Fold:
Amino acid sequence: EDQVTQSPEALRLQEGESSSLNCSYTVSGLRGLFWYRQDPGKGPEFLFTLYSAGEEKEKERLKATLTKKESFLHITAPKPEDSATYLCAVRDNDMRFGAGTRLTVKP
Amino acid sequence: KAGVTQTPRYLIKTRGQQVTLSCSPISGHRSVSWYQQTPGQGLQFLFEYFSETQRNKGNFPGRFSGRQFSNSRSEMNVSTLELGDSALYLCASSLEVGNSGNTIYFGEGSWLTVV
Structure:
């Protein structure tokens, strides 16, 4: 069965402490891997779309990478405003979301 | 450019009632999909509409239904509400039908509480 697994479930960082979030997936035919950020009480905000292994995208302190079995969201020198839940989703015929990683960045 | 707009933002309903939620997609987007988000189950796909036709459906009971209008606006309906239907209902839009790999953009959601 197609699955999307995100790890860790929760991550606490000090401001400036870089880290990575993982999204591993098993789908029959990947048509896209998506990263979103969700703040409490709000809808998910689009960050990146990746389509093929080896692809990388960057935006400010965030960088997303993709292999054939997983994607990483690297956060460089995070700030408190980066605190949010980060969601990964994969599309084959359906769109499947992981449970998310809840990131807290302390000043 | 306006984003995805959902109404109402918050509502409280009684068990057994029915509810209709509305979604206006980003201008030019022709595909609309709906999701249910709960703390226990996360984000789960309900259904997707493109050109007024349901293209895909998730694993939800028939009490959950939707439709899309010729201007791409969409509504979803939940009949005979149950306590477990309390959730954040999210609408998302994209340029083309979802399995093309297009990015989907979410609205802020409609918070439904069933009492």
Q: What stands out?
A: Chain B touches chain A at residues 4, 6, 33, 35, 42-45, 56, 58, 90, 98-109, 111 (CB under 8 Å). The radius of gyration of chain B is 13 Å. The mean pLDDT of chain B is 94.
